[in-house]
Write a structure and sequence with these properties.
The protein has 4 helices and no strands. It is an all-alpha fold. It has one domain. Helix 3 runs antiparallel to helix 4. The longest helix is centred in the last third of the chain and has 20 residues. The N and C termini lie far apart (73 Å).
């Protein structure tokens, strides 16, 4: 009995979905990088001090490995965490006066 997802050319639904997926998402390394950036962004958003330390550490490690794109993304997240810490002066943030 033929499968219902095949058309007359023998192309399955999975083949069609695979063609719609962007090329950069097909590799496991690219998906790992996207997940890493998403996790660090969440940590920066909710725990800026921990996010600053985490993003700085990952930026250092990626710089050492020669991965400039991830280094720059992590530095941007670290700058955002620093901005988040310093801009909340009235809500208990660090504030520029202490720096």
């Amino acid at each position: 009995m033929p499968r219902a997802v095949n058309n007359c050319l023998g192309v399955t639904l999975g083949d069609r979905i695979g063609r719609l997926e962007p090329e950069f998402l097909r590799s496991a390394e690219a998906r790992r990088r996207i997940v890493l950036v998403a996790i660090v962004a969440l940590v920066v958003a909710f725990l800026p001090i921990a996010g600053l330390l985490l993003a700085g550490f990952i930026a250092f490690m990626r710089h050492r490995d020669g991965d400039n794109t991830m280094r720059n993304l992590m530095l941007a997240l670290a700058i955002f965490a620093l901005w988040e810490l310093t801009s909340l002066e009235n809500q208990g943030g660090i504030g520029w006066s202490l720096l």
